Amino acid sequence: MEKSFIIILGYNSSLPFYNHHPTSQILSMKNNLFLIDCGEGTQTQLLKTKIKMNKINNIFISHLHGDHYFGLISILSTYQLLRRNSLLTIYAPKGLKEIIEIHIKWSNSNINYPLRFVVLSSIKQKKIYENKNVKIYTIPLKHKIYTNGFLFKEKKNFKRLKIDKIKKIKEIKIKDYRSIQKGYNYIKKNGTIIPNKYLTYNRIKSLSYAFCSDTKYNPEVVKYLKNVDLLYHETTYLHKYKDLANKRGHSTSINAAKIAKKSNTKKLIIGHFSNRFTNKSMFKKEAKKIFKNTIIPKTLVKYYI
Amino acid sequence: MEKSFIIILGYNSSLPFYNHHPTSQILSMKNNLFLIDCGEGTQTQLLKTKIKMNKINNIFISHLHGDHYFGLISILSTYQLLRRNSLLTIYAPKGLKEIIEIHIKWSNSNINYPLRFVVLSSIKQKKIYENKNVKIYTIPLKHKIYTNGFLFKEKKNFKRLKIDKIKKIKEIKIKDYRSIQKGYNYIKKNGTIIPNKYLTYNRIKSLSYAFCSDTKYNPEVVKYLKNVDLLYHETTYLHKYKDLANKRGHSTSINAAKIAKKSNTKKLIIGHFSNRFTNKSMFKKEAKKIFKNTIIPKTLVKYYI
Hints:
The structure is a homodimer. By secondary structure, chain A is an alpha/beta fold. Chain A contains ten helices and 16 strands.
């Protein structure tokens, strides 16, 4: 199973900019593909990766500003043209369903694959997805309109068995393995306890990724981000524009770095830069003063969590 | 004044394709800019030209299939962010206004510049625009949903004056020039008629451009296209798929070439190729059998009419 990673398809803010793309990311976590936000041109960006669009079954939309969702409708149309038949679930604020339906109505077409909308409306954190490997939660953000970030967590990994040690204890059967992988000791028929650590390697740490865009500086969010392995946080403005940032529901480089530091994250990726700043490296320079492991991403590159 | 030209921003059909762009074109006619169709990514393509987006005051949408209009909403948003204040007029079938308004409603934003929708609904040809230099007409097409092509015609050019000849006739004043430029003879005070051709060069021919996408083969359209200087006509399919093309409301390469020939156009540009055909040059090869001056366009290149 490939280690979990993200690919940033775009991290531009709302004004178009030559050769930049609005917000969209692909997260691969325990071999599940999640599409996070979907600015215009997302499907064209996807075509440049090796990601198979048809393997995406869950799309997460943070909020209904165009630079975060205008690319969605063409992806839904493409799925129809490609005769998708598997369920697609879209997690988004109220309104997106109505928008999609209006487009479909006027094009006199249909969506024949199962399409499910999960309407996000709570201002508290909610678990919105769970399968055997991954749990996903909203991160309530403070923006000009109702907005969520998303927290993606790998579930506890099974421990890897020390097969040589296990083979020595003849009475351990294959049906017993799962319990040992979960971390339980093995109790022999004669009552002897074989400690789990004798039978297994150390558990591989479960990873987590948090996506926070768009949001004003809000230290309350830190409680949702504690010890997250990788954090994407928007930095629309350099810090000298902190008042403007706050007024417009956005963060500065210093704001993002403070959130990263307080959250005890390992790595911070910044983006969503306003195009008024031509020298984007200034964002990194500012953020690094507070949080050293800050990067400006390259699009279409895999970042392992 | 620059000679009229088109720039093709994209001519892909509905399925996305690496490094191709869905339908959109810019026409510059007598220094007026007209945007014709607006597939996803149109504004990004525009950024690659020297066209100033803010100089576009009229947008023409052929029909409400996504590959012809999904890029419009982000252009309208960008105009808002750039604080446009001049009138923008959109000529489109019924429905587009509703679609745009739903997007604006849910983003909790506004459009503060004057935005006018001209709803196209006639199945007969209509003149939809006229200024001092240009007239624009719909071209009723036959597609799966209500669709128009567009015919752009330069108005009659003023004749260029032979200044040396005019100077010899002292009584001709500057105020008389416009009448001579229009082609009238000059009548001297003594009653002598000075023939117009003595005072002016031959009139420069007024040019015309026709855009026909999407449409099934329909020879009736020829009456709208007579002697058009440049014709863009869709060719979604190679001719062996003519039945499928017809069923789906599209044309083949041979269909387009026949329309070009019957219309007595000078040049045919083809596009909107289905991505099932990897070798696009086959389209040109087929069309050229019927109509020699056929080209597959390069995007972002100026084609003078």
